[in-house]
């Protein structure tokens, strides 16, 4: 009887070893089929110096800004990186992604830059006190191109409008930043372009803020006259690419 049981035990052990080997083989196949990890990038600075500047921002600024949502071309309005391979071809990279949609990334970065440079608050979508000048900023990105190992390009038409006087400034900025190899370098190039764009817009806000402000009506009553048509102000000379002298009414 003992001689009859030994082969059964050996057969059971061999079966278990075969099952374990099969499971290991399946695990190896599944590991080989697993998708590569995705990498996420943002255009918003998150370093300590940025937080330090934000913490010292004026609580009651002389004026406010209202930065509207940023428009971007439909072909790049997706989470995946869309990179140029030549003048007429692009590649959509599934593993290289923006932390949020590109328009949201640009708006958030611009808002942070403008509030720091102007010492003010972005009140878009929020109530704000009467009597404080508000400047509405609109940005329409017409080209948002990513050329890995070459350059990052942002071509944007932007405007600043005084909600008090309806004076408007409309300009165009074309920012072309050289970049090195790798996607970190590409994102850094777009970040530099956004910083340059914010500097031009901040200069535009300051130009409009320097314009004469209307006198308040006596007795606190509103004027009965019809609103004046929007007047135009020339783009600041520091804008990388400005509109023709006299500006363009938006």
Keywords:
250 residues; alpha/beta; Rossmann fold; four-stranded mixed β-sheet; three-stranded mixed β-sheet; 4 helices; 7 strands; disordered C terminus
Blueprint (SSEs and pairs):
Elements: H1 2-33, E1 39-41, H2 48-55, E2 64-67, E3 80-86, E4 89-98, H3 102-118, E5 134-147, E6 151-162, E7 168-178, H4 183-209
Parallel strand pairs: 1-4, 2-5
Antiparallel strand pairs: 3-4, 5-6, 6-7
Helix pairs in contact: 3-4
Characterize this entry briefly:
The chain is an alpha/beta fold and 250 residues long.
Describe the structure.
This protein has about 250 residues and is α/β, with parallel strands linked by helices. It has a domain of about 170 residues: ABC-type transport auxiliary lipoprotein component (Rossmann fold). Helix content is about 35%, strand content about 25%. Strands 2-5-6-7 form a four-stranded mixed beta sheet, with helices on one face. The protein has a three-stranded mixed beta sheet with strand order 1-4-3, covered by helices on one side. α3 crosses α4. The C terminus is likely disordered.
Strand order of the largest sheet: 2-5-6-7
Strand content: 15-25%
Oligomer: single chain
CATH superfamily membership of the domain at 39-211: ABC-type transport auxiliary lipoprotein component
Overall radius of gyration? 29 Å
Main sheet properties? 4 strands, mixed
What is the helix fraction of residues, given as a range? Answer: 25-40%
The helix-and-strand class reads alpha/beta
Give the overall shape.
elongated
Q: List segments where confidence is low: pLDDT < 50 over at least 5 consecutive residues.
A: 217-226, 241-250
The CATH level-2 architecture of the domain at 39-211 is identified as 3-Layer(aba) Sandwich
- Give the N-to-C terminal Cα separation: 100 Å
Number of strands: 7
Number of helices: 4
| Average pLDDT | 82
CATH topology of the domain at 39-211: Rossmann fold
Name of the CATH first level of the domain at 39-211? Alpha Beta
Q: What is the element string, with H for helices and E for strands? A: HEHEEEHEEEH
């Amino acid at each position: 009887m003992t001689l009859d049981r030994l082969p059964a035990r050996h057969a059971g052990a061999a079966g278990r070893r075969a099952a374990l080997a099969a499971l290991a083989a399946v695990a190896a196949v599944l590991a080989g089929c697993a998708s590569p990890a995705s990498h996420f990038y943002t255009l918003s600075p998150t370093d300590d110096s940025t937080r330090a500047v934000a913490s010292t921002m004026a609580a009651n600024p002389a004026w406010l800004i209202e930065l509207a949502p940023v428009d971007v071309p439909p072909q790049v309005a997706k989470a995946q990186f869309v990179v140029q391979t030549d003048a007429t071809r692009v590649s959509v990279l599934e593993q290289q992604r923006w932390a949020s949609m590109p328009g949201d990334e640009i708006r958030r970065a611009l808002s942070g830059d403008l509030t720091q440079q102007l010492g003010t608050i972005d009140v878009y979508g929020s109530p704000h006190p009467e009597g404080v000048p508000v400047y509405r900023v609109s940005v329409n990105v017409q080209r948002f191109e990513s050329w890995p190992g070459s350059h990052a390009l942002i071509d944007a038409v932007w405007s600043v409008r005084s909600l008090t006087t309806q004076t408007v400034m409309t300009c165009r900025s074309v920012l072309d930043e050289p970049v090195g190899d790798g996607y970190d370098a590409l994102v850094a190039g777009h970040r530099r372009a956004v910083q340059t764009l914010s500097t031009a817009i901040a200069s535009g806000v300051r130009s409009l803020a320097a314009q004469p402000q209307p006198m308040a009506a006596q007795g606190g009553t509103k004027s009965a006259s019809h609103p004046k048509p929007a007047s135009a102000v020339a783009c600041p000379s520091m804008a990388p690419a400005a509109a023709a002298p006299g500006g363009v009414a938006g």
